[in-house]
Design a protein that fits this description.
The complex is a heterodimer. Chain A is an alpha/beta fold. Chain A folds into four domains: 29-119 and 242-309, D-Maltodextrin-Binding Protein, domain 2, CATH 3.40.190.150; 122-239, D-Maltodextrin-Binding Protein, domain 2; 319-409; 419-482. Helix content of chain A is 52%, strand content 14%. Chain A is built from 16 helices and eleven strands. Chain A has helices at 2-18, 40-52, 71-79, 94-100, 134-144, 158-170, 182-190, 254-269, 271-279, 289-309, 319-345, 352-372, 387-409, 419-439, 441-455, 461-482; strands spanning 29-33, 60-64, 86-91, 110-120, 122-126, 149-153, 175-179, 196-199, 210-215, 241-249, 283-288. Chain A has a six-stranded mixed beta sheet with strand order 2-1-3-10-4-11. Chain A has a five-stranded mixed beta sheet with strand order 7-6-8-5-9, sandwiched between helices. In chain A, helix 14 packs antiparallel against helix 15 and helix 15 runs antiparallel to helix 16. The longest helix of chain A has 27 residues, at 319-345. Chain A starts with a helix and ends in an 11-residue tail after the last helix. By secondary structure, chain B is mainly alpha-helical. Chain B has one domain (19-501). Chain B contains 22 helices and two strands. Chain B has a two-stranded antiparallel ribbon with strand order 1-2. In chain B, strand 1 and strand 2 (199-200) form a beta hairpin. Classes of the chains: A alpha/beta, B mainly alpha. At the A-B interface, helix 2, helix 3, strand 7, helix 7 and helix 9 of A face helix 3, helix 9, strand 2, helix 10 and helix 15 of B.
Chain lengths: 493, 502
């Protein structure tokens, strides 16, 4: 009998080990979005996730990872296992931002599944200004001699590139005035601060004061039959488009890519999806695999060319900038040592105030020398990348010196409290932050909570247990269950 | 009068069920639900109004557009108040706008009177919200026109004006305040250059491309720094003895706040109209102006009720203000209204001036009515909630502090789902403790973090538009810069005069 049970268990283990892996997908697929919730790309991803429910039982969840102008999101997908459970919502503007920020991310780090949305780039003007039509733009730019202002989101963004390309094709000179977002740039156009806004037809919806001067397309748009295309007005830019697609890690297995591509194809054909895209004055398309990759390659090549034309991509820091950086780095310990030595020499007390001011002084020196090596202002600009940091660094150095002098003359007394306890809690927090990605949120939090409570001298074990359990359950229910926050779950368990 | 008629119609739509498919009780219930969610979103540091609204968007897919709109607007309205609660209770502003409220609100809590602070905050906030709604209804068109006149030179002047508040805030220790301010300004230059796209001081960390994330830094400086400072100064005997009163401010006290509440509500609304300026700057300016008109300016920073009411009213008013450009121009006035645009688009409704005339005009008037109703509900819930908040404050510190730390770290993580931000929060927390331990105020640092980027990017943009004279040849920018100069020098002049007399 015992032997029989043993064989049964062994057989079970073997069967479990030998059985083919469960079929993809067996858990939710995460769509990584680089922008904040509510932006165009975020809504696109959320709509795709919603429509996908009609075609698969596997939920698609959107996760926003912003920062680094998209670099954080791209790195998240690149650093994840190539198992198809992380898909990147990929906007056209990534191509140039990667080049501008020199973030060492290449387009060959990704496998491009399918492009689902495209919209033509458009030059948009303010109806109530003197510059409305395409001809007005050319006339006005000649009058202003290069000082005509074109506005749009970001430096080296897709729209910025479109502006540079247009100036080239229109044979005019103008200046790009970047804003942090499309909305602010449109406000600037409406307020008469900028003259031309570079965007897409969706930007004029619901804004009767805006008018499209010309659009990059081969044929006039059905929704805007009066708007000329750029080729019509003698500007050879027939297919400048903004697109949105999806990509995965470059090493993702073929079968998984096919599965995802098929899902995206079904999404793109869904009536609800098509209404959503049409509501945004864009076109629903489906460019899969090679066609999408070719589009990315074309854009990368063009982007690099025009970023260089526009003098946006800075080269590596030259030798003098590198030397300045070394001086900056070296000045930090020198200043701190000099401060300690100077105070000791004068037999003054080294108070906390003085140390803080010294650290600020060292920081100011570090930033100052770095900023001195920044590229000089481009022609026609009074201030460059370094100007403002240099001003603040000098002012900070000045104030810090004054504080050091005043601190030496009138040393302040500080009341001493439970510094040991604070240092213990600080150490506990550092352990928490280190443990967070390794052990996961819940074990790390348990440690911080229980350790913190006991460190503060609380000794009612029952209450501590109840508190810890309550907080953890609350966090799980609210953050994980309700809000879908992707709290780290740890890698060692 | 036609407008008031429309508002009445809006109320009819909301509670009289003018629309088929919506039961008469549904809008009120949805608003109440939205208010509760909004308070929670505001209370959690890291969950800002915009994140809160965005997180609610998926729940609105199946809803009627009107219900979706009023739900999101209710969340937005209430999150402005939620941020005030934690600022008063534990000196941890749940939203950036509540920073200005923590100075006096937390001082009152330390004196054992959180009830008075919380009570005036909720009353001021709701008054601000209702004033803001009426300004939105009555003056949105001229206000939007004025907001458009705000170009880069004016934004720069506004940022500079905001920075001068530091001077009146830190009269005790001017030099340390100055070090703190400039340190914040310098740290704010980290990241992609706003005009050239050059990477500054990023030391090859991709997370720093967009600069130091402001919210985690704020949570660190306030929540974590405050906890550490409290642990250091904790006296075990006294901690058990302190009692907290949930007593509300009396009628007489409230009447005394009348002037600063009305002024701050209007200020908050008007500054809220300017896209990109927003609730935070409005709250700081309202705080400073309230001190200027106050009979007891010396009480500010030590537990002045006016110092609580003014920023709370401004934060409430800014909600209505931020809706002005959205409804009249189709441009979001704040991060949260930007999410509102996206949500409306999902429902096939394009926000903008055409909304007033077309078949969707009931949405606009329904929204107006829902804002008034929402603020009324918020007032009731806020007053009822006071006892609960005071109970939490009165919990043993040994239990409360670790929980605050956990919430601070979760909040920092939730801002962008980034572990790097958790480290930012930790570093700024320890940093904030050390600074405050040695008498360096952290409020100017925060103000610099808020305004530094706005000042630089608009200074640079203005210089793209023209030469340096542009700041003085444009009337609005010139007037604001003169005001800034006055606001900067007044405390010095006053101090000298006092000395001369003595």
């Amino acid at each position: 009998m015992r032997r029989f049970v043993f064989i049964l268990i062994l057989g079970g283990i073997l069967a479990a080990a030998g059985s083919p892996r469960a079929e993809y997908p067996e858990r939710p697929i995460v769509i990584i979005v680089h922008a904040k919730p509510g932006g165009a790309i975020d809504l696109t991803a959320r709509m795709a996730a919603k429509v996908a429910r009609n075609y698969t039982d596997t939920p698609l969840v959107v996760e926003n990872r912003y920062g680094g102008s998209g670099a954080v999101a791209m790195r998240a997908v690149m650093g994840h296992k190539p198992d198809g459970y992380q898909m990147l919502a990929f906007p056209a503007t990534f191509i140039s931002t990667v080049q501008v920020t020199r973030s060492k991310i290449g387009m060959d780090d990704f496998r491009f599944l399918a492009c689902l949305i495209e919209a033509p780039e458009a030059l948009i003007t303010n109806r109530n200004s003197d510059v409305v039509s395409f001809e007005d733009i050319i006339r006005d730019s000649r009058e202003k001699g290069g000082r005509q202002l074109w506005v749009g989101p970001g430096v080296g963004s897709l729209d910025h590139l479109m502006a540079v390309k247009s100036w080239h094709a229109m044979d005019i000179q103008a200046t790009w005035m970047p804003y942090d977002g499309g909305g602010e740039a449109i406000a600037s156009l409406l307020g008469g601060h900028g003259t031309v806004y570079v965007g897409n037809p969706e930007d004029v919806r619901g804004r009767p004061d805006l008018r499209i001067a010309a659009v990059s397309a081969r044929q006039r748009l059905a929704l805007f039959p009066d708007v000329p295309t750029l080729p019509e007005v003698g500007c050879d830019l027939p297919d400048e488009i903004m697109w949105r697609g999806f990509a995965v890690h470059k090493d993702t297995p073929d079968t998984i890519c096919h599965w995802l591509t098929e899902l995206l194809r079904q999404i793109s054909a869904d009536p609800e999806w098509q209404t959503f895209v049409a509501n945004n004055s864009a076109s629903s398309v489906f460019y899969a695999g090679e066609k999408f990759t070719a589009l990315v390659e074309r854009d990368s090549e063009q982007s690099l060319r025009y970023l260089k034309v526009a003098n946006i991509i800075a080269g590596e820091p030259d030798s003098s900038a590198r030397r300045l950086r070394q001086v900056g780095l070296a000045s930090v310990p020198l200043i701190l040592l000099g401060l300690v030595g100077g105070v000791r020499l004068r037999r003054g007390p080294l108070t906390g105030q003085t140390v803080i001011a010294g650290v600020c002084l060292a920081l100011a020196a570090l930033f100052l020398f770095y900023a001195l090596g920044f590229p000089p202002p481009t022609v026609g600009q009074a201030v460059g990348a370094g100007t403002i940091p240099i001003i603040w660094a000098v002012v900070l150095a000045l104030f810090s010196l004054m504080q050091i002098v005043s601190g030496l003359r009138h040393p302040e007394e500080n009341s001493r409290g439970h510094v040991g306890k604070v240092l213990f809690i600080a150490a506990l927090m550092i352990v928490f932050v280190i443990l967070l990605p390794l052990a996961g949120f819940f074990p790390a939090t348990l440690l911080l909570l229980v350790g913190g409570v006991y460190a503060m001298g609380y000794r009612s074990h029952l209450k501590v247990g109840l508190l810890a359990a309550g907080v953890l359950i609350f966090c799980w229910f609210i953050f994980v269950q309700t809000l879908g926050l992707p709290l780290p779950m740890g890698t060692i368990f | 009068m036609e407008i008031l008629q429309n508002l009445a119609e809006g109320f009819g739509t909301l509670v009289g069920s003018g629309i088929s498919g919506i039961a008469w009780w549904e809008p009120t219930l949805v608003i109440a639900g939205g208010i509760v969610i909004g308070i929670f979103v505001g209370v959690m540091p890291g969950l800002s109004a915009s994140t809160g609204v965005a997180l609610m968007v998926p729940f609105t897919y199946g809803m009627h557009p009107l219900i979706a709109l009023i739900l999101l607007a209710a969340v937005y309205t209430a999150s402005a108040y939620g941020g005030c609660i934690t600022a008063i209770a534990i000196n941890t502003p749940g939203t950036p706008a509540a920073v200005a409220l923590s100075f006096d609100g937390y001082a009152l809590t330390r004196q054992g009177e959180p009830g008075r602070a919380l009570g005036s905050a909720v009353i001021a906030n709701c008054t601000g919200g209702i004033v803001g709604t009426f300004i939105l209804i009555l003056f949105s068109v001229p206000l939007a026109k004025a907001a458009l006149a705000f170009g880069p030179p004016e934004y720069f002047a506004l940022a500079i004006f905001g920075l001068t508040i530091v001077v009146s805030m830190e009269q005790k220790n001017m030099l340390k305040g100055a070090v703190s301010t400039v340190l914040g300004l310098l740290l704010m230059t980290i990241g992609l250059d706003p005009i050239n796209g050059y990477m500054r001081f990023t030391f090859d960390r991709p997370e720093l491309t967009d600069g130091i994330s402001f919210i985690p830094a704020l949570i660190g400086l306030f929540a974590v720094g405050e906890v550490l400072l409290n642990i250091e100064r904790l006296k075990p005997v006294q901690a058990g003895l302190q009692t907290f009163s949930s007593k509300m401010p009396g009628r007489k006290e409230l009447m005394g706040l009348r002037r600063s509440i009305v002024q701050s509500s209007a200020l908050g609304t008007v500054i809220g109209v300017v896209p990109g300026a927003g609730a935070t700057i409005a709250a700081f300016i309202a705080y400073n102006e309230a001190r200027r008109i106050s009979k007891n300016p010396d009480m500010f920073g030590k537990g002045s009720l006016e110092g609580v009411a003014a920023p709370a009213a401004a934060a409430g008013g800014s909600v209505g203000g931020a809706l002005v450009p959205l409804l009249t121009l189709g441009i979001p006035g704040s991060a949260a209204t930007a999410v509102l645009v996206g949500a409306l688009m999902l429902h096939g409704v394009t926000p903008g001036p055409e909304l007033f005339a077309g078949k969707n005009s009931y949405l606009v008037y329904g929204l107006f009515a829902s804002l008034v109703l929402g603020n009324a509900i918020l007032l009731v819930l806020g007053v009822l909630g006071n006892r609960l908040w005071v109970k939490i404050i009165a919990a043993p510190k040994a239990l409360l502090f670790p929980v605050i730390l956990v919430v601070a770290f979760v909040g920092s993580f939730g801002v962008a789902n980034s572990l790097f931000d958790v480290s930012v929060c930790l570093v700024f927390g320890i940093f904030g403790w050390i600074l405050r331990r040695y008498g360096f105020p952290t409020a100017p640092l925060v103000l610099a973090l808020i305004l530094g980027y706005m000042a630089e990017s608009n200074f640079r943009r203005a210089l793209v538009m023209g030469d340096a004279s542009i700041f003085l040849t444009r009337p609005v920018s010139a007037v604001m810069l003169v005001l800034a100069l006055l606001s900067f020098s007044m405390p010095f002049i006053r101090a000298r005069r006092k000395k001369g007399r003595a």
